[in-house]
Amino acid sequence: MKKTLVLGASDNPARYSYRAVHQLKQHGHAVVPVGIRKGQVAGLDIHTDRPQDGDIDTITLYVGPQNQPAWYDYILDLQPKRIIFNPGTENEELERLAQQRGIRTEEACTLVMLSIGQY
Q: Which residues form the CoA-binding domain (predicted)?
């Protein structure tokens, strides 16, 4: 299954990133939750550092475009196969930078993709 880094992970059940981590795990995907606050989600520790996990297939974004520039180098250096821009995270600049490095980008909802088998 695809190893997914959830950027903007939260231990708050009201957040979509919380639901995404749970759904990804339920669908059998390895998940690396990364956020700005320590906590746990779906039995996984939320990393507040920038883990250098290899073999990241997908980064799914739950960080608004105004806060993404601080993450650009980290995201691009991980060299994922794709980046999913969930609703509210769309960012033309990051999409262009990713595509220049051969990283596929999608403006989509991870939760919907999982629910319809298109992840």
A: 2-114
